[in-house]
Amino acid sequence: MLKPWINKEGLVDYETMKNDPWIQEKLHEIEIINISQFDYNEKFAFWLNAYNLLTIKNVLTEFEKNPQWKGNLSILSKIRFFYLRKFKVAGEKINLYNLENKILRKRFKDPRIHFAINCASRSCPILPGKLFQAEFLNEYLEELTSTFINDESNVFLDEQNKILFLNRIFKYYKKDFKEGIRNFILKYLTRSIPLDNFKLEYFEYDWSVNTV
Prior knowledge:
This protein is mainly α. It folds into two domains: about 140 residues, no CATH class; about 55 residues, no CATH class. Helices cover about 40% and strands about 10% of the residues. A three-stranded mixed beta sheet has the order 3-4-5. Strands 1-2 form a two-stranded antiparallel sheet.
């Protein structure tokens, strides 16, 4: 469970987390595990967990180097965090960029991925409070997606001006929403409202680290 380190605002207590043996154990497990015999859902859950756990490891590394680190606020910082730093996962070396784009997005082609992985920024979906399990994978992905979309800091309807304000994730990964962004949102939005004539606009993305 990751929930003990996540507060009500979705911010993470990395300082306490870094010394917890459970985290270190999970990070070691994803390095050495053999997933060749895993089925589809087991592999999907594994790679989602790997992304989130390695992001945590990446953040802990940044704070170890610089306790005043503010997040991936510069291009150089993003390059180092997502491209240059590689990790051993299931016996292979990989960076976070390729884990997301070459494995998760390419192999599983599920737009709910974008509400299940956390890149340690404040505009990113909140770090899931527990690890993904194959048996309950679909239910948890549905829950996380619904939670994200019904949070007005991510999806805000300005009904008077007919504007749908969205987290920039929808813009970054527009092509992953095959049915269209509006239709995808309507599947999860608890309010029943036609969005066809709403103009899409996007919030600024806050890359500040999601630490308490």
